[in-house]
Design a protein that fits this description.
Layout (H helix, E strand, L loop, with lengths): L12 H4 L2 E4 L15 H6 L1 H7 L3 E4 L3 E2 L11 E5 L6 H13 L3 E6 L9 H8 L11 E2 L20 E4 L4 E4 L14 H16 L4 E4 L32 H11 L7 E5 L5 H8 L8 E3 L8 E2 L2 E5 L4 H14 L7 E2 L9 H4 L7 H14 L3 E5 L20 H12 L5 H11 L36 H5 L5 H14 L1 H5 L1 E5 L6 E8 L2 E8 L5 E2 L4 H4 L3 E6 L10 E2 L4 E6 L1
Parallel strand pairs: 1-2, 1-15, 2-5, 5-9, 9-10, 10-11, 14-15
Antiparallel strand pairs: 3-4, 6-8, 7-8, 12-13, 16-17, 17-18, 18-22, 19-21, 20-22
Helix pairs in contact: 11-15, 12-13
This protein binds alpha-D-glucopyranose.
């Protein structure tokens, strides 16, 4: 691996940027209906500017019956009523651009809503223009389902349509039928829609489960069990690279934009293909391996403790895997994951320190950092005691299947939802200590985390020691120092159980990050070649003055420049 120098790195805006994800339903409500909206985001533009982020990724704002909070789209070229109008959206884009912030839209094209006109036509008129837009199959010869794949949201992936007398495929909810990407007309309809938004001035796309769009011919069952994981037949499927190259040639290459593909189950080998610049597919992808470290053999709801050496190993594999070709995205949470401080840090006594420590990790590894709304405040998981306070279809379907129909112990299932459920990330952003955390003057669509009196933006904006200010500092640091973007990465102490340490090197400059993932102090033994160099603290979460050279305090994070 050659050592990068400032002269030979290929500088790109999207590599140097920090992206901030907005989940509009929970960001800010401007009109008191309890649901966040576009004008709510407009009210907070100066907050985003102050934080210093370069790009907003906006989760879906398109027309939707909201079976899966906007990830079920019934009109790709219009705005959801609860979120506002197209002119609100235009004003938002203008407000962002005036502040030098770009806007990335969510592109959800593995599936539509079952209320999309394409689907309605498809089920009512099999021989018509849209007849082949979705994945339709007859029942199996024995009268059973076409195959045994299990949906991400529990139950089979097949739903029967009375109108058409056939089953349609839905990897997600039954209100999210999968589009048939084998049909060229579908692909071109998607490209046309993408151009619609690009011509309106959007700066990029985050592509929802984009590595699931190509399914293996014949949709074979996995074994003979009545229901089984079918992902080997649609993750990184046979035509996926062809489809993405076509999309690139038809659309992406014609605009100067940012692209990131969400890719559950993707491997490093495939990721290299998706992101190698000369292959002309995507710039970055979201991989999921580190999100699986606390899942047991039973999957995401089978929760096991994660271990630091494993986290390091996974991140290392990706850092090294995409070092020469491709590019990493860096995230520890989003709207589908629990809050990172509750999962990988400590949301009790060391909440502030551990939120800053995790932020240090995200901003000093190699890749583009993604900050999820509220992360910059150190927001935590919520523990709603009752199932009816949860809103997410994934959690509700799972509860229904296991408790209502399966006789499982409700306490165990509730504990899994409280730890792992997606609603942990979807409680409203905590703006201040007024009622409903300043998110709405009405009744919020989902409960506010009761800790908003102490954890909120108003309080942190005025406190230079806050998590918010630390994020601001890290983001500014990345802008100033190309080493954080382009420097080569090298891991130290892979097996250490509490210390996570690595260097970044660009030309003759080396930076060292050392993080203590523990509620106890940890000793960091400086490796000989580094220990002899003079170290200047660049940023740390305990302040500078009283740092011991070898002992890291609970959740202490320090980044040094070595001279
Ligand atoms: C992605 C989204 C998630 C959604 C699913 C189906 O994983 O991030 O929120 O439920 O795709 O669209």
């Amino acid at each position: 691996m050659g050592t990068g120098t400032e002269a030979n790195v290929n500088r790109e805006f999207w590599k140097e940027a920090v992206v901030y994800q907005i989940y509009p339903r929970s960001f800010m409500d401007s009109d008191g209906d309890g649901v966040g909206d576009l004008r709510g985001i407009i009210l907070k533009l100066d907050y985003l500017k102050e934080l210093g982020v370069d790009v907003i990724w906006l989760s879906p704002v398109y027309k939707s019956p909201n079976d899966d909070n906007g990830y079920d789209i019934s009109d790709y070229e219009d705005i959801m009523d609860e979120f506002g109008t197209m002119s609100d959206w235009e004003e938002l884009l203008k407000g962002l651009h005036e502040r030098g912030i770009k806007l990335m839209m969510d592109l959800v094209v593995n599936h539509t809503s079952d209320e999309h006109p394409w689907f309605i036509e498809s089920k009512n008129n099999p021989d018509g223009e849209y007849g082949d837009y979705y994945v339709w199959r007859d029942a199996a010869p024995d009268g059973g389902l076409p195959n045994n794949w299990e949906s991400f949201f529990s139950g089979p992936v097949w739903e029967y349509s009375e109108e058409r007398g056939q089953y349609y495929l839905h990897l997600f909810s039954k209100k999210q039928p999968d589009l048939n990407w084998e049909n060229e007309k579908v692909r071109h309809a998607v490209y046309k829609m993408m151009k619609f938004w690009l011509d309106k001035g959007v700066d990029g796309f985050r592509m929802d489960v984009i590595n699931l769009i190509s399914k293996v011919d014949g949709l074979p069952s996995n074994g003979t069990a009545p229901i089984a994981d079918g992902s080997m037949y649609y993750v990184d499927g046979p035509r996926i690279h062809e489809f993405l190259q076509e999309m690139n040639a038809e659309v992406l290459s014609k605009y100067d934009i940012i692209t990131v593909g969400e890719m559950p189950g993707v491997t490093v080998e495939e990721a290299k293909k998706y992101t190698a610049e000369e292959r002309k597919e995507l710039q970055m992808i979201f991989q999921f391996e580190h999100m699986r470290l606390d899942g047991g053999p039973g999957g995401k709801w089978d929760i096991v403790p994660w271990k630091l050496p494993q986290l390091k190993a996974v991140m290392h594999k990706w850092q090294i895997g995409l070092a020469e070709k491709g590019w990493n995205s860096l995230y520890l949470n989003n709207h589908d994951q629990p809050r990172m401080v509750s999962r990988f840090g400590n949301d009790g006594e060391y909440r502030v320190q551990s939120a800053k420590l995790l932020a240090t990790l995200l901003h000093t590894l190699k890749g583009t950092p993604y900050v999820y709304q509220g992360e910059e405040l150190g927001m935590t998981n919520v523990k709603f005691p009752m199932i009816d306070e949860y809103k997410d279809i994934e959690s509700l379907n799972m509860y229904n299947e296991r408790v209502t129909h399966g006789g499982a112990d409700p306490g165990t299932v509730m504990a899994a939802i409280q730890t792992r459920g997606r609603d942990n990330a979807r409680t409203p952003v905590q703006w201040d200590d007024s009622e409903h955390a300043g998110f709405t003057t009405g009744k919020p669509w989902i409960g506010v985390n009761p800790n908003y009196k102490t954890i909120n933006a108003a309080r942190q904006l005025g406190d230079p020691e806050s998590v918010f200010h630390y994020y601001k500092e890290l983001i500014a640091l990345r802008k100033k120092h190309p080493i954080l973007t382009y420097g080569d990465y090298e891991l130290l102490l892979p097996d250490h159980e509490t210390i996570y340490a690595y260097t970044r090197t660009l030309g003759d400059e080396t930076w060292l990050t050392v993080l203590n993932f523990s509620t106890e102090p940890s000793v960091f033994e400086w490796p000989g070649n580094l220990g002899s160099r003079e170290a200047t603290l660049v940023i740390g979460n305990y302040g500078e003055s009283d740092a011991d050279r070898n002992e890291w305090r609970p959740y202490e994070a320090r980044v040094y420049k070595l001279n």
